[in-house]
Specification:
With 400 residues, this protein is mainly alpha-helical. It has a two-stranded antiparallel ribbon. The radius of gyration is 20 Å and the shape is globular.
Length: 400
C-alpha cells in the first residue's frame, strides 16, 4: 500500500500485542472493564457531570452495542467474513495509538494480548501490513484514503463486507477515542500524550459549498430485492428512504453495524428539545471540514443556516480550511466569541483528541454554552469523526 502523506509519524510500525513504549506496560485489567465503551472513566466523574452523561443512556447503549458487534468475545471467519478477531483488535489498537488516548490503547492492547497472531507466511505478512497501514491512514486523515487502496484490500483477500466492517470499526474507535477524551476533560485532565505522534497535517480539501451534492459508492451495494430478511428489516428501520440510498445499501453489507451506527447517529443529532440546534450543526460542519468531507459539510452547513446560523461564519469556513491559526483569525472576524470557542473545542477534539482537556470545556462555558449544549457540541464532533470516515472512504462526492 502506497504511503500517501509526508512523514505523518516517524515511520511505519507494526502493532504488537504489547505496548510500543517501555513506560506504558501492558495492563491486563484493561480488558476486564465492565463497560467496554467508556472503560469506567464515567465512574470517576463528579456526580453532577455523571448525571449529565446519564441523560444520554440511549446513546451509550447504542455505542456499547456497536462495540459488541464489532469486537465480540468470539468470532468465526468465513469466505465472505475474513476479518478475524485478531485483525479487528490489532486495527483498533492502531487507531487508538494514532489518537493517543492512553486508556483506549491499554484496553485494546490487553484484549489483543491473549490472541494468537497470524502465521508468518509471506501472504499473511502482506495482509497484516495492508491492514495496519490502511487503519493508520484512515485514523489520521480520511482524505488520505484513495480508491486504489480499496482495490489493494480486495487484493489481500477482503470481501466487500470485510471492507465495510473494517471501515466501520476504524470509524467507531475514532469516535470512541474522542468520547473518552471528553470524559478525561470533564475529569480535569488530558487523555495523555503518547510520544511519537505529532499532530496530523491539515486537510488540503477544496471546494466546500452549500450546493446539493451526490454520494456514489465505490463498492458494490446490496440490492434491496435480493437482500436477506435481516438486511431488509434494518434498511426499513433506519430510514424511510434507506432502500434507495447508496450509502445505506452499501453499509447494510454489515447490517448489525449499520443498525447501531444509525442509532448512535440519531441519538446524537436528535438529542434534547432542539433537534436542529445551530451549535450542533456548526460542530458537524467544522468537523467535516477538518476531515475533508465535502458531502457532510454541505448538508450540515445548510442545516446550520436553517437553524438560524450565521451566513458569514459558513462563508468564512468554506473559504479557508481550518488550520492552527484559524481560531485566532475567526475570533477577529466574529462579533461574538461563542462560535470561536466552539471551533476551538472542535478543532482540538478532532485533530488532537489526546490534548483535549478542561481548557476547551471552560472556553465553551465562558462563551455562554450550557453544560448540555457543550456536550452536544463535543458528541457531534466525535460522531462525525466516525461518519466522515465512512463517507470519505467508501464513496465519492459528485456534483448533481
Amino acid at each position: 500500500m502506497e504511503q500517501q502523506r509526508k512523514a505523518a509519524h516517524s515511520g511505519w510500525y507494526h502493532e504488537t500485542q504489547s505496548s510500543q513504549y517501555g513506560h506504558l506496560p501492558l495492563d491486563p485489567h484493561a480488558a476486564l472493564v465492565q463497560d467496554r465503551f467508556l472503560l469506567g472513566l464515567d465512574i470517576q466523574l463528579d456526580p453532577t457531570l455523571r448525571q449529565l452523561l446519564n441523560e444520554r443512556q440511549k446513546l451509550l447503549r447504542a455505542s456499547r452495542a456497536c462495540y459488541e458487534v464489532l469486537f465480540p468475545d468470539n468470532l468465526s471467519v468465513s469466505r465472505t467474513e475474513t476479518l478475524s478477531l485478531y485483525d479487528r483488535l490489532s486495527s483498533a489498537l492502531t487507531v487508538a495509538q494514532v489518537t493517543g488516548v492512553q486508556s483506549l490503547c491499554s484496553h485494546y492492547a490487553a484484549r489483543l494480548a491473549p490472541l494468537s497472531s497470524p502465521d508468518a507466511s509471506r501472504e499473511s505478512n502482506i495482509r497484516q501490513t495492508h491492514i495496519t497501514q490502511f487503519a493508520r491512514l484512515l485514523a489520521t486523515q480520511p482524505t488520505l484514503i484513495t480508491p486504489p487502496m480499496l482495490d489493494q484490500l480486495y487484493g489481500v483477500g477482503f470481501s466487500t463486507r470485510d471492507i465495510v466492517t473494517f471501515t466501520q470499526l476504524i470509524g467507531f474507535v475514532s469516535y470512541q477515542a474522542r468520547v473518552l477524551a471528553v470524559l478525561n476533560g470533564l475529569r480535569g485532565r488530558a487523555a495523555a500524550v503518547l510520544p511519537g505522534f505529532p499532530a496530523p497535517e491539515g486537510c488540503e480539501q477544496k471546494g466546500f459549498s452549500l450546493a446539493m451534492l451526490q454520494w456514489k459508492s465505490r463498492l458494490p451495494e446490496v440490492a434491496p430485492e435480493t437482500a436477506s430478511r435481516h438486511q431488509q428489516d434494518v434498511l426499513d428501520l433506519i430510514a424511510p428512504d434507506a432502500r434507495s440510498s447508496s450509502f445505506y445499501t452499501l453499509l447494510v453489507h454489515d447490517a448489525d453495524a449499520l443498525s447501531e451506527f444509525s442509532a448512535v447517529f440519531n441519538h446524537v443529532m436528535q438529542a434534547g428539545e432542539r433537534p436542529k440546534a445551530a451549535w450542533r450543526e456548526l460542530s458537524a460542519v467544522a468537523t467535516s471540514q477538518l476531515n475533508g468531507c465535502l458531502y457532510c459539510a454541505g448538508i450540515h452547513g445548510r442545516l446550520y443556516l436553517d437553524a438560524g446560523g450565521n451566513e458569514t461564519i459558513i462563508a468564512s469556513l468554506f473559504e479557508d480550511n481550518l488550520r492552527d491559526d484559524a481560531v485566532d483569525v475567526l475570533s477577529k472576524m466574529l462579533s461574538e466569541r461563542k462560535e470561536a470557542a466552539l471551533l476551538d473545542a472542535v478543532i482540538t477534539l478532532t485533530r488532537t483528541p489526546e490534548r483535549f482537556d478542561a481548557r476547551q470545556l471552560h472556553g465553551l462555558s465562558d462563551a455562554g454554552y450550557s453544560a448540555t449544549q457543550s456536550l452536544d457540541i463535543l458528541l457531534t464532533a466525535a460522531l462525525f469523526s466516525w461518519s466522515n470516515r465512512l463517507i470519505q472512504t467508501l464513496g465519492d462526492t459528485l456534483n448533481r
